[in-house]
Amino acid sequence: MLVALFLQACYYLTRVKLGSWVNPVKFLAGGANAYLTAFSTSSSTSTIGMPITFEVSQTKIGFRESSASLGVLVGANSNNDGTALYEAMSALYISQVIGQYLS
Question: Which one of 36, 44, 69, 90 is CB 3.0 to 4.6 Å from 49, fit for a cystine?
Answer without folding.
Answer: 44
